[in-house]
Every structure is written in C-alpha cells, then in structure tokens.
Write a structure and sequence with these properties.
single chain, about 70 residues, mainly alpha
C-alpha cells in the first residue's frame, strides 16, 4: 500500500508542477510576457529556451511515470 501512496503523491505534485510550469512556459513563449515578474526570474534562459520549459519536461516525465505506475499492478 505504501507504493500506491507514493505514486499518488508523485501524481499530485507532478500535476501541479505541469500546470504551473505550463502556464509559465505559455506566457513566456507565446505571449512574450513574464508570468511571474514578481520573482525576478524573467529572462532566465538555458540553451535559448526559457528555464520553465525544462521544468515542464521534467514534471511531465514524472507525471507519465506516476500514471504508468498507478495503472500497472
């Protein structure tokens, strides 16, 4: 049962992370504005992409792994 709790926790955290980093990625790439200008991290780029895009990729990977783990027995 501990495995199921861990996977559900991972699912919840990664879902929130995908939503948040997806919002930031959308605003920076498509709207050319900063979604969180208060934090002062606007313009942070890694290999010409905003840093939030890499967060979106990593959270998406965690979300996929947790979904596969919850569906498998």
């Amino acid at each position: 049962m501990k495995k199921q709790i861990a996977l559900k926790t991972l699912f919840g955290i990664s879902l929130v992370g995908v939503l948040f980093s997806g919002y930031l990625s959308f605003t920076e790439i498509f709207q050319q504005t900063c979604g969180m200008g208060v934090l002062g991290t606007c313009g942070a780029e890694v290999f010409t992409l905003p840093a939030c895009v890499y967060g979106l990729v990593m959270y998406s990977a965690c979300l996929i792994v947790s979904i596969l783990g919850l569906k498998g027995k």
